[in-house]
Amino acid sequence: MNIGKIETTEHAALTSRLGREHVADIVEFLNGKTAQEATEIVAHMPLQWSVEVLDQPHFRDACEVIEALPQDKAVALLEGMSADRASDVLRWIDAPARGHLRDALNADTRTAIDHLLTYPEGTAGALMTTEFVSVPANWTVKQTLDHIREVEHSRETVYAIFVLDPTTKRLVNTVSLRRLISGVPDAPILSVAHAYAPISVPATMPQEEVARAISKYDFLAVPVVDSTGHMLGIVTVDDVIDAMIEEQTEDVQRMGGMEAIDEPYLAIPFAEMIKKRAGWLCILFVSEMFTASAMQFFSDELEKAIVLALFIPLVMSSGGNSGSQATSLIIRALALQQVRLRDWWRVALRELPTGIVLGGILGIIGVIRITVWQQAGFFDYGDYWKLLAVTIGASLIGIVTFGSLAGSLLPFLLKRLGFDPATASAPFIATLVDVTGIVIYFSVAWLFLHGTIL
Amino acid sequence: MNIGKIETTEHAALTSRLGREHVADIVEFLNGKTAQEATEIVAHMPLQWSVEVLDQPHFRDACEVIEALPQDKAVALLEGMSADRASDVLRWIDAPARGHLRDALNADTRTAIDHLLTYPEGTAGALMTTEFVSVPANWTVKQTLDHIREVEHSRETVYAIFVLDPTTKRLVNTVSLRRLISGVPDAPILSVAHAYAPISVPATMPQEEVARAISKYDFLAVPVVDSTGHMLGIVTVDDVIDAMIEEQTEDVQRMGGMEAIDEPYLAIPFAEMIKKRAGWLCILFVSEMFTASAMQFFSDELEKAIVLALFIPLVMSSGGNSGSQATSLIIRALALQQVRLRDWWRVALRELPTGIVLGGILGIIGVIRITVWQQAGFFDYGDYWKLLAVTIGASLIGIVTFGSLAGSLLPFLLKRLGFDPATASAPFIATLVDVTGIVIYFSVAWLFLHGTIL
């Protein structure tokens, strides 16, 4: 690849412009370019800037740039980047190239990255960085401040300082920089430490729980420890925000009944788009085939009272809608830990009356609709239209109640089975309610219309 | 209210226990108590701790505690709390009590709170706090550090320092504390300032956009300015995380087809639960009535070919499912600004072939289903079962394509009209696709079955 294609003067202009902008804006500018153009521009930047650009998780072509650059430059960038970001980039580079790059790194960076790469994606271990400030508990305030001034440029954050036991190296306490700078220089570091016991997370904790901990305690960084209480790294608040946004996208997509996609919509290859959507669509289609089976079962009734068919979509969809309301309420309540698994019966006891009232409201509207259409002569529902109206009203109460109950309990079931409650909950509940809805509808119809049109 | 009900010794025990825990854990403990118990405990805490407790946005009974306490204690608490939190609490206290409390506050606090209360909820102005560190641009590094040490305890964050023009008082630049402590004491403060122009947000900016800015620039705090460039306050990263979680809950609930509820599920009063859910449910029910109208229109065809009714739920729900996939994809893509309003035609051009392929896959499964049931003798679809199978297959292609297209374009339409794209998108699209699906289905049936069973 010819990285000299853009003229030197152009580069000087670009460079001076970029120098006045925040690195996040530079990344936005680069993301608007092709991978090749981005590589050229990054290759011509001063090293410090290109490190900053590559350190941004939002920079789309990080892997392509690292792969396209000459190895010595790529290695210098990886060594300059934060360890968590460098390991993320290496994670996505294919095997032979990754091995060559890794071998060329200096020993410190290689060890740090190798270590981070052992944690599975989506855990505190994979999210954390090893570039934090720690000091032994027998240091003074002044010693700590001097140390921070020295290492500041190579640390992801210096606002949280981690105090370790001088002999065991276990995490003893945390100090915030704001308290530290107000401390008496000769006082021991622990004199400005927090009063509460240090709060840490294990390396295996899923990233959503890490996000919850950071948000609960308003931390700028949370320490990650191993099973013996030794510090492995820190997860910072900006990483958590990125993880939260990613999580939110996955939740919305799963609720929409598809596999999660982490690429931007317009960048997803066509085949992948089909793959991610077809799977769930087929599962739901095959489940929904039971509606055809249920209707075949009631085909005699249907033949006798074709008028019943007219209201099937209306009655069924109401069950689906009430179910998806209940499901989305409980998905969030579970995610925010407002309800726990053991609360399922409390939820059921709330949804039962809620479903009856909501179904009753819809039932009344339905009865009014049929009465008005019949009386105004818009459509003739036959001699027994009053019984038909009662059938629709009563079915709606039954179906909406079933929808609310099933919709609220499905997330508990999914969570109990170890799945994410958001997984295809809404469309899955619609399908379940559709099939049950047909059975309820025809049973209620048989009850009210038996001996007349049935 | 008798706040002496818990014995003094018990309080001493509680107090010592609370003293060793993080304030967020104390709040969690208090949230498990009744409002009255929580008030008693808070009333017996040392003032500094009760201020910390009330400063936590997750503390549920803040308004109740402030209202129940004697006025002098309540005023001391409000004055000690951060201004943004105090104004949030006052916002929710009813008129006469709020006025009395406000009048009893000292002038500084009252001015700050009055100012914050002028901004509508959900904007940068309502989210910001006025307790930030600002220094004139002609100060030195040492002057700034000394100032920070002095005011540290009364500021929400001291990690971002805002440099103002000494005469115009406009925001000139920002300095991070980590750079400040490494600076030469006698050097001017601007020598350690960031190279890029200061990034700020207007007070009227919606909180989602503030969250996006903080997440994009990895800020710990973003300055809020008025139209003349004067600083009004800062929004900190922890406020943004809380706002993001709230936003996420609202999105999930709106996608589930209901009004957003910000209370915990089990704490929502029954009447409110019905109110929040019945509205959209009724709107969707009335819209879905068009399915009955559409089927009435085709009732002659239905009477001739009752077998067509069997597949209505199956065919309709597939359209709804593909629509909700497309909708959820585009809702997120719009929220993350991966696609913009003007990209609607790009999205349409992607969804058209996607819908055709997905519909084709379902169509093939549908044809196989009918063939197997017919050949195996599970059900007799009549002499023209082959034409029926073709009808189902072709309808599925049409309906899934329509669902994908409509589902992907609805969020654009909602956004263009000024609504949140998440608003009831998924159930609304299902309703739209249901009605259209019936028309497509019977039209395709007429095309293939006309002259045979129709």
TrEMBL record, chains A, B:
<comment type="similarity">
    <text>Belongs to the SLC41A transporter family.</text>
</comment>
<keyword id="KW-0813">Transport</keyword>
<comment type="subunit">
    <text>Homodimer.</text>
</comment>
<dbReference type="InterPro" id="IPR006667">
    <property type="entry name" value="SLC41_membr_dom"/>
</dbReference>
<dbReference type="GO" id="GO:0005886">
    <property type="term" value="C:plasma membrane"/>
</dbReference>
<feature type="transmembrane region" description="Helical">
    <location>
        <begin position="384"/>
        <end position="414"/>
    </location>
</feature>
<keyword id="KW-1133">Transmembrane helix</keyword>
<dbReference type="InterPro" id="IPR000644">
    <property type="entry name" value="CBS_dom"/>
</dbReference>
<dbReference type="GO" id="GO:0015095">
    <property type="term" value="F:magnesium ion transmembrane transporter activity"/>
</dbReference>
<keyword id="KW-0812">Transmembrane</keyword>
<dbReference type="InterPro" id="IPR038076">
    <property type="entry name" value="MgtE_N_sf"/>
</dbReference>
<feature type="transmembrane region" description="Helical">
    <location>
        <begin position="426"/>
        <end position="449"/>
    </location>
</feature>
<feature type="transmembrane region" description="Helical">
    <location>
        <begin position="352"/>
        <end position="372"/>
    </location>
</feature>
<feature type="domain" description="CBS">
    <location>
        <begin position="128"/>
        <end position="191"/>
    </location>
</feature>
<keyword id="KW-0479">Metal-binding</keyword>
<keyword id="KW-0129">CBS domain</keyword>
<dbReference type="InterPro" id="IPR006669">
    <property type="entry name" value="MgtE_transporter"/>
</dbReference>
<dbReference type="Pfam" id="PF00571">
    <property type="entry name" value="CBS"/>
</dbReference>
<dbReference type="GO" id="GO:0046872">
    <property type="term" value="F:metal ion binding"/>
</dbReference>
<dbReference type="Pfam" id="PF03448">
    <property type="entry name" value="MgtE_N"/>
</dbReference>
<keyword id="KW-1003">Cell membrane</keyword>
<keyword id="KW-0472">Membrane</keyword>
<dbReference type="InterPro" id="IPR006668">
    <property type="entry name" value="Mg_transptr_MgtE_intracell_dom"/>
</dbReference>
<feature type="domain" description="CBS">
    <location>
        <begin position="192"/>
        <end position="250"/>
    </location>
</feature>
<dbReference type="InterPro" id="IPR036739">
    <property type="entry name" value="SLC41_membr_dom_sf"/>
</dbReference>
<comment type="function">
    <text>Acts as a magnesium transporter.</text>
</comment>
<protein>
    <recommendedName>
        <fullName>Magnesium transporter MgtE</fullName>
    </recommendedName>
</protein>
<dbReference type="Pfam" id="PF01769">
    <property type="entry name" value="MgtE"/>
</dbReference>
<keyword id="KW-0460">Magnesium</keyword>
<dbReference type="InterPro" id="IPR046342">
    <property type="entry name" value="CBS_dom_sf"/>
</dbReference>
